[in-house]
Amino acid sequence: MNKLVLVCSVGLGVSLCFLYALFAGIFLEHLILSTVTVVELAVVAGQFIKVAGMVGHYRTQPPRAEILLWLLSLETVVELGIFVAYVATSSLFWSNLA
Prior knowledge:
Elements: H1 3-30, H2 38-60, H3 65-72, H4 74-89, H5 92-97
């Protein structure tokens, strides 16, 4: 591998990791846990499951586009299910969740 490409890749990777750590630190500093709602926790859990699924899948097999599309469209399918539940039951809970 070309040494220039390697040095640039390492430099870019380190700078992106630093920016991510800085953003995460600032975000966690301003986060007030008593105001976190169930919906926000569901969104964070969904994102965590999506990332864990992608990492777990791509560690065992080469990347396939249809798996990536399925994982990225998971929220749309869940939102559609919530909407159908609201239409079927007319419950205020499903309305607020949607």
